[in-house]
Fold this protein.
Amino acid sequence: MRICRFGEGRLGLVEGTTVRDVTAALEVLPTCRYPLPTSDLLITNLDRVTERIRAIAPSSPAVPLDSLKVLSPVANPGKIVGAPVNYQKHLDEVKGNPALHYENQIAVIHRTGVFLKANSSLVGPSEGIALRNLDRRNDHEVELAFVIGKTADKVPRSEALQYVAGYSIGLDITTRGPEERSLRKSAESYTVLGPWLVTADEIQNPQDLNLGISVNGEVRQDSNTKYMILGVAELIEFATTFYTLYPGDVVITGTPEGVSPIKPGDRIVATIQGIGSMEVTVRAA
C-alpha cells in the first residue's frame, strides 16, 4: 500500500496517477491529550488505519495526483536519524575533495556512528527546498528512507526488518562547511521525505534497489542500495544499541557517490526502485 499526506493534512491512498481521499480512515486514531506521545500517531496505529483504508477506498473520491500538494508521509517523527558516508564510493569522493569535507573528521560509519537532524528540517516534496547560506555550497543527497513501525530497543539485525513500517525517498540537503554535520543538515526544508510511504510488505529486499537523482534533467547520482556499508537491518541494530527508536522515527540511510551543488531555480527528480519518483524545486530561503 502507498499512503500519502496532502493538502491540509489529508490522507490519501495512491493508485497509479490518482489518489483516493481516505482521510476518514483517521477516525480510528485514538484521541490524545497533553502531554502528547513521543511517537507519530498515524504510524503507531498503521495497521488499524490501513485496515480502515481497505474498507473505505472503493467508495472514496479519486483526485489526480499531480493536482495535489504532497506533504511528508510522516507528520511528527520523534527523531530523524542520518547515516553519514554509508557508501564506499561516496566515502572515497568525500575524502578526495576538500570542498566536501572541510577538514572535518571523515571515517567509516562504524567509527563515526549515526547522527540526528532537527525535526523542523522535514518537508514534503511539494513544499520544496529553501536554501540558506547561498554564499556556500549546498549539495543534494538522495537516500533510501525508512520509517520505524514499532518501539525498537537493542534489536538484533536478524529481527530488525520486522520493525520497519515502510519506505520512502529521502533528500538530505547539506551545507558544506566546518561545523558539525547535524547543524549543517538541519535547516528548514533540508530533509525532504516522500512522495508517499510504501508499506514494508511491498519491499521484499531493501538492499537491492536502484536509486538516483537528476537535476534539471542531468543525472547526478545513479547507484543501488546493495552498496551500503551498513544496510537497513544493521542501521537499526547499531542505532538501538544507543537509544530507542519509536514509531514514526525516520532513518535516512546515506547517499551514494555523485553529490553536487544545487541552486535556486533547480528542479530535482529523485527516484528509488519500488517506491517511485518525487520532484522537488529549489528556491532561496
In short: The helical segments are 41-44, 46-56, 88-95, 98-101, 109-112, 181-184, 232-239. The chain has two domains: 2-71, 80-284.
